[in-house]
Amino acid sequence: MAKSKASRESARTLATGGGKATDPALVIVGVGGSAGALSPLRRLFASLTSDCNIAFVVVSHQAPSGKSLLPEILSKSTQMPVCEVADQTRAEPNHVYVAPRGYHVTIHGGVLGIEQASERGRPPLPIDFFFRALAHDRGNRAVGIVLSGTGTDGTLGLAAIRAEGGLSLVQAPETAEFEGMPASAIAARAADFVLTVDEIPARLLAHAGGGRVSVRSTGSSEASSSEMERILGLIRLRGGHDFSAYKRETLLRRIHRRMDLQRIEQLADYAHYLDQHDAEIDALWRDWLIGVSAFFRDAEAFQALLRSGLSELVAARPDGSPLRVWVPGCATGEEAYSFAILLLETLARMGKHLELQIFATDVDPVAIQTGRAGRYPEGIAADVGADRLERFFLPEDGHLRAKKALREAVVFAVHNVLHDPPFTRMDLISCRNLLIYLLPGAQQNLLPVFHYSLNPGGLLMLGAGESVSGSEQFFDALDARWKVFRRSDSARSGPPMRWTQRGAAASATASATLAARAPAPDLADPLRRYLADHFGPPAVLVDAAGQIQHIHGRVGRFLELPSGRANLNVVEMAREGLRAPLTSALRELQKSKGRIVERTARVKGNRGWHALRIEVGRIEDRRLPRPLLLISFEPARRNAARAAAKSAGRPRGRRSDPRAQLEEELQHTRQDLQRTIDDLQSANEELASANEEVQSVNEELQSSNEELQTSKEETQSLNEELQTLNAELTQKLQAFEQANDDLLNLIHSIEIATIFLDQSLRVKRFTPRARNVAHLIDTDVGRPLADLAMLLDYPDLLSDADSVLQTLRPLSKQVSAADGLWYDVRIQPYRTARNAVEGLVVTFVDITGTKRAERTQAARVLAESIVDAVREPLLVLDASLRVVRANRSFYRLFGVEPRGTAGQLLTELGNEQWNSPPLRERLAKTLKEGTTFDDFEVEQQLPCLGRRRIRLNARPVPLFDGDGAALLVLGFEDVTEAPPP
Q: Has residue 719 been placed in a domain?
């Protein structure tokens, strides 16, 4: 941990002036891949030039130990330098950096660092980890690319890059060897473009623009331009979302991002493009939502909430009572589930039994569906933690899914906090990082809504950059840093109105200014709204399942929220007397091909029963993802007035006859009852048929269950066998590794030069000593033997090797080298464990010492023969003047025996008569200088011979290597009777 902290501090020092930081305009591309990503990586970098002015960081799934070969492999596909990321590596353009094994890559100020994966408890996914850091560090100059791989790594990272204005690219799943990672990113809507690998370089270079992302200004003139108003109108008209309360500068930055992606320069051109492409409208408003969330985002904020008042609020609640939480702008639900986990843990710790009700709302229906499913990428493990992950989540097809108990604690609904009626009787509202995107007027109108929604003493939690400025009377601050507030019970807030009504007066001046600058408005939409509000009956818009999507007018006389968990189903919300005819009308419309179905009913309201006419119609539009149903409620008196207008010729008394009205209502009631009976009979028949099918399916499921149980047992048995086999293979692999290590150590430590050849007489391997017999380097592996420059006098080496390969008979020859050395060359077949011949082994044994010993021995034999053949007495002395040999003449002249002579010092022979200082000096000089002397006379008293005069002659015998004399031949001549010379 110390190392990783030091690396981050060092990187921060480089980025803030302590060293040379990376160019802030440099585009840095993170490339993530797993299984099957090697080929796409090579194709990607092979298509990029070495002057693209982009830095690349490659992060892949690798084993934590061992040396990575990825840098070496990628370096063969690109001319850009490729290297592993080291600590404090400054990212430079036209370079490729590869994440090392066992480490996660960090980045700060464009300076790359590494930290060990094991430092963070449960390690996060490496691609998500780097992509998130890259998004935070580079902003709109960050690019993420997800290639082939299994799992979900990279999904959360791409979402973070998109949220910061960067570019996210995903390999098309149909072109990927493993589609798990690309498919996960696409399903999470984290990809800007889905491309083939060959299409990615062009899109990347076009976005980078030579290494720099275009920077556009977001001035007030462009934010208030007529083009901006036109874009907002298109989103409102076709997308059904009103963003007039959002800050224009924030929206404009996201518009500029979409313009860069579509390669459009002018805002007017982009407005025209939106008008022609509905898909771009959908992409733009989803970009405006910035729906990026995370589990336990700002973990300290959750702890601050517990300390500030949540624990106290939970403790004060009696067991069995509900604990209600509202999370507006929940995106895909991570925040809502975080609160559910936090509260469940708090309840368990305090031993409380409360009914937990968390309402998570957002305007994005796709995000709501994701939250309901509770299925998230594996990357959330880094945010949730190992303990909570085990307790609240289950692995599912490479994802993590919230357990049923956790999902049941959260209710998701499509809801616009600015326009739709709020949830009430809440104990906690968490609205983090939503107010910062709204205009001040919208913020001031939304805070009283939260005050109205909270119970007395309820808590409000905002984002770190948000406040209750201007509405301090509604809330008391509990934690100023983490923006935790308590509802002020002294302030009063009435029932909230829709934002369009609340904000009208507050923004009158701004609207007048914008209207003065904008061209003549389109009056069709305001006219339709006015007519609907003043002349149209109350109505609700529902989907095929009866879930309310939109409410028009006051429908409280006909619908009411049921007790318990919030439910926006129109049938469940129907008041007494309305449910049966409403259900009948919906069923009939779904079965028939007609577009309108009518019903009459008597509904019980707050002031008694009243007659009602219901009309259900189908709305189909190509801009709608699915057909919707419009249910309108019209009081019977209005319907009666219309009937009276049509029958003006009837007598007045008949029109006002209450009996006729009752008969008419009775007739409608009978008709409704008959329809209900018919529907009930039809439903009973369908239920009977469905029951039979269910029974049949149940039998099939039981059979399938038995088969699955058998398959499970077989799979378990197979898994055990695989584990056993895996253990055996692991042991064999370890044994092979050990044998390989032993062989390598043997080859490097052996003193015999050896060259291994294949069947084509090409070099396969050689020992270090082989460089003494041939000019060999590491790159010579694979070269033919004939191309090697041999240092031996062995011209027949190639022919002899070919002969051994053909005959399989080993061959041995003694050859000399240019430096005077001798080698015993042995050529024998290379046999495998299966006794197959796959080449030759040529060994070169140094026999120079043996050759010298043979020559020395021969010389000695020759010298001894010569010594014995000479009639003159001779002694052969070694360097210490010890007698090595004496000839027969010496023994005969001096009357001594070989046993008392050989091995004795010259000075100790006889009665030490040869122990003469002048003689010793002369002999020592001869041995040292290698000179000779003649006629050196001495007089000695010899046993049995008396006084004799002896003349000595000496000849040194040098060694074969020329390192001085090794032996000395001393000749004796008796010159007692001879005259002096």
A: no
